[in-house]
Design a protein that fits this description.
hydrolase, 6-stranded mixed beta sheet, 12 helices, 330 residues, Beta-lactamase, binds glutamine
Length: 330
């Protein structure tokens, strides 16, 4: 991306009705704190405070509505898979799909079973194996791919303090057995061009980026805005590409619970084991909810709850609305 022109810098939201709604949802989501478990298979994530909750909603005209711990950076983990995919599609285009599939896996994000039976081609770019193949493309294209992704995350979020957390990176590296198994299996099938260690390091570094709900809602707003980045005003990806990334998020962004989430929320979304979930309302807004405690599929309990409440209220939203609220909880 080139010099930012800052056409629509995010600013505190101008609609009191929308801010009140975001506050109300955050308040209600706190009732879900205490359910679920913080991810501990990556030891550096185990000491996250399960009582944290943040919510940020960024409208396409650059109004930002936040509540709770929306400004607190957390480990973005699998949310990075959206940025990795966007970047790989920019550099490689549709040839990427020769080596990664487009269908939901119906399996946990770190499962190895289908990889063996399906010739080392991962089902989609949002499970670990798929993102490792995407990372392989970036290792081929850039001298320092994770630094490049960090720079892009900084530009898209407008926050120069976004960085890779080396403690998390080291922790993922030390506990890499399952991801390494997937990578070696794909290497054996001829589906990795570069050395396994180099690809894994890139993949882990991207997972270890630290960003806040605010950063993520702003950075991923391009998916709600036909590919146009909010902070620069430039097209980050073409409109058709944004549409396809949203489609993949809808079908595969929530791991093996993608169908449940689509049924309950009905928005393209991507989650990470750091407890963040980003959801997109195409043409309108991007939303990030975060709370570290996860359900059995690896999706944040309170963040899912908040996004359900957001989805319920969306039909009532219009830019000029003066009153706005979600229906009472079932
Ligand atoms: N679902 C996730 O967020 C998983 C990402 C994590 N870094 C892993 O490789 O397992």
């Amino acid at each position: 991306m080139t010099t930012p022109s800052h056409t629509a810098r995010p600013r505190p939201g101008s609609s009191p009705a929308l801010q009140a709604w975001v506050d109300e949802i955050a308040e209600r989501a706190r009732s879900r704190l205490g359910t679920g478990r913080v991810a501990d298979y990556i030891p550096a994530l185990a000491d996250q405070d399960p009582e944290r909750f943040g919510l940020a909603l960024c409208t396409n005209d650059g109004n930002l509505y936040t509540a709770g711990d929306a400004g607190m950076p957390f480990s973005i983990q699998s949310l990075s898979k959206v940025l990795l995919l966007s970047l790989a599609l920019r550099t490689h285009g549709d040839v990427l799909w020769r080596r990664v599939g487009l269908n939901p896996s119906g399996m946990p994000f770190n499962s190895l079973m289908q990889l063996e039976t399906e010739g080392g081609k991962p089902r989609n770019p949002f499970i670990n194996a798929g993102a490792i193949v995407v990372a392989d493309h970036l290792v081929s294209a850039f001298a320092t791919p994770s630094k490049h992704l960090q720079d892009i995350a900084r530009t898209l979020s407008g926050n120069p303090r976004v960085l890779i957390d080396h403690e998390v990176l080291g922790s993922e590296w030390r506990h890499r057995a399952r991801n390494a198994a997937a990578a070696y299996l794909m290497k054996a099938f001829g589906n990795l061009d570069n050395e396994v260690d180099e690809v894994l390091e890139t993949y882990f570094a991207c997972c270890a980026l630290r960003m806040s709900c605010r950063d993520l809602a702003v950075a991923l707003n391009y998916l709600a805005a036909d590919g146009r980045a909010l902070t620069t005003g430039e097209r980050f990806v073409p409109p058709a590409m944004a549409q396809r990334i949203n489609a993949l998020m809808f079908t595969s962004g929530m791991y093996d619970a993608a169908g449940d989430f689509a049924y309950r929320v009905g928005l393209p979304a991507k989650s990470g084991v750091g407890g963040g979930i980003v959801a997109i309302v195409p043409g309108q807004m991007s939303i990030c909810a975060w709370s570290p405690a996860l359900d059995a599929s690896g999706n944040s309990v309170a963040a899912q709850y908040a996004l359900e409440r957001v989805a319920e209220g969306l039909g009532r939203w219009s830019p000029g609305a003066t009153r706005f609220s979600s229906p009472p909880a079932p």
